[in-house]
Write a structure and sequence with these properties.
Elements lengths: L1 H46 L17 H8 L1 H34 L4 H13 L2 H11 L6 H8 L14 H26 L3 H9 L5 H12 L1 H16 L3 H7 L10 H11 L3 H27 L6
Helix pairs in contact: 1-13, 3-7, 3-10, 4-7, 5-11, 7-10, 8-9, 10-13, 12-13
């Protein structure tokens, strides 16, 4: 009996020692996560419940007042609408073009490295610097695009100052930048597909390229496609650089997006509490969209 009690006590001491060791090992990582991830999120949520203004010595609790004001604000409604339209255009187009470019490069036998570098250049370039280049190219009188159109007898547009074209022009630049990144991810997925699967598909009657893509390539790219769609959607929601440099939300708020509204409210009008409320809504949209896409696409993600 005494021997059993001693054995039990020894086990408890060993379990306690293991727990302390695990806590000491995980403690620094948990502390850093709280400090740099969870802590700032909590501060943003708390600020969104106040009327704090940048630089003010005091603040007051306003509850959901900032959220009520925000959802009744036409500027925020327009900003949200523009952001959703931007995501709806950029995500499917850049994913489709990235997949197409990856398939074409992998199908070729020469100049693969050259094509990979050309498509990936926009990803490596600083977007603000490239936005300035795009602004020059889209100039209504001196821009290369309008000059080229005039050579074919087509009258150009004031791409960035026309409400009908401004947002779609920014979408085109967003697609231009995202295609190369998506292409690299799809190429990594293509190189991981075993060649034996294509041989087996050929034995089963998949003779054409379309048959091989439908029966082998597309199913095997399921996990990569899921990752690409989610990452591209999050990056599209974060559009800010091109808006800030090229249009500043204009003309007449035709290109104002959520991040630009957040920046304007926080650093131009110093309404930190209101900007924090916009940030919370922005984070909820990104989180909800990511979870929805993960759930919807994951139902079809499988290996053949």
């Amino acid at each position: 009996m005494a021997e059993a009690a001693a054995l039990s006590a020894a086990r408890r001491r060993r379990s306690l020692g293991e727990a302390l060791a695990a806590l000491s090992l995980a403690g620094p990582a948990v502390a850093l996560m709280v400090m740099f991830l969870i802590g700032p999120l909590v501060v943003v949520v708390l600020l969104s419940l106040t009327n704090y203004q940048l630089g003010a010595a005091s603040l007051s609790y306003v509850g959901l007042g900032n959220y009520s004001e925000m959802f009744a604000d036409r500027v925020f409604q327009r900003s949200l609408q523009n952001t959703l339209l931007y995501v709806a255009i950029v995500v499917p187009t850049s994913v489709g073009l990235g997949l197409g470019a990856a398939l074409l490069i992998e199908a070729g036998t020469s100049l693969r490295a050259f094509y990979r570098a050309v498509y990936f250049l926009p990803v490596m370039a600083t977007l603000i610097a490239m936005a300035i280049v795009w602004e020059f190219m889209l100039h209504p009188t001196l821009g290369l695009i309008n000059l080229t159109l005039r050579e074919f007898g087509i009258e150009g547009y004031n791409w960035l100052q026309d409400r009908r074209t401004a947002l779609f022009t920014l979408c085109g630049i967003g697609i231009w930048q995202s295609v190369g990144f998506n292409m690299v991810l799809f190429m990594a997925g293509l190189t991981a597909i075993p060649g034996e699967l294509y041989e087996a598909a050929a034995v089963d009657g998949a003779r054409t390229g379309i048959d091989r893509f439908r029966t082998v390539t597309w199913p095997m790219l399921g996990p990569v496609t899921l990752f690409v769609v989610v990452i591209t959607a999050i990056r599209s929601f974060q559009v800010f650089d091109t808006v800030q440099v090229m249009t500043k939300g204009g003309p007449n708020r035709a290109t104002e997006v959520l991040l630009y509204t957040m920046y304007s409210e926080g650093f131009s009008f110093f309404r930190t509490g209101y900007a924090a409320a916009v940030t919370v809504v922005f984070l909820l949209f990104v989180l909800a969209l990511s979870l929805l896409k993960t759930w919807a696409i994951n139902r079809k993600v499988h290996y053949a």
